[in-house]
Automatic annotation (TrEMBL):
Pfam families for the chain: FliL
The UniProt record lists the keyword Ligase: no
Transmembrane segments annotated in the record for this chain: 26-48
Organism expressing this protein natively: Roseibium porphyridii
Protein name: Flagellar protein FliL
Bilayer topology: Single-pass membrane protein
Length: 169
């Protein structure tokens, strides 16, 4: 019986050691997991919330200030055109202002005003009412008009086309 008791005691000791070792491993892996999680959280905060540029104090005299260049606006005459439709007649009434760099640029553009209006009229008559729907349609219209006007007045340059009024009836 002593051999059996000794064998039983050895098994009990092995179970106690394995249970204690399991808790130590669990604690060790939990601690490592927590450290990794904190490091990942810190890295995410740094990349998402941190700024790559240093913060500039408002009283810093060496900081560069963004200076907006003065611009000049030139109003084109109001245009009314009929749009390309299959059935019912649809009209487009538009008032446009041109954004240019300075007054000298207006003097360069004015002799080309008939060419500008002609390019606009031809393009606007080809539009369908569906082409003017939504902000994306108006953005495409603005970009196309800017492209056409810069082709018409080259070497002068227009910086932007601004819609003062757009009416589709």
């Amino acid at each position: 019986m002593t051999d059996e008791n000794a064998a039983a005691d050895d098994e009990g000791e092995n179970e106690a050691e394995s249970a204690g070792g399991g808790k130590k491993k669990l604690f060790l892996f939990g601690g490592i997991g927590l450290v990794v999680l904190l490091a990942a959280g810190g890295a995410a905060y740094y990349f998402l919330m941190g700024s790559s540029a240093p913060m500039v104090m408002s009283g810093d005299p060496e900081s560069p200030q963004a200076v907006q260049k003065p611009v000049v606006f030139y109003d084109l005459p109001e245009m009314t055109v009929n749009l390309a439709t299959d059935g019912r007649t649809t009209y487009l009434k538009v008032r446009i202002a041109l954004e240019v760099e300075n007054r000298a640029m207006i003097d360069q553009i004015q002799p080309y005003l008939p060419r500008i209006l002609d390019a606009f009229q031809i393009y606007l008559r080809e539009l369908r009412p569906a082409d003017l729907e939504g902000s994306a349609g108006l953005f495409r219209l603005k970009e196309e008009l800017l492209r056409r006007i810069n082709l018409s007045v080259y070497p002068a340059k227009v910086e932007g086309v601004l819609f003062k009024e757009i009416l589709v009836q």
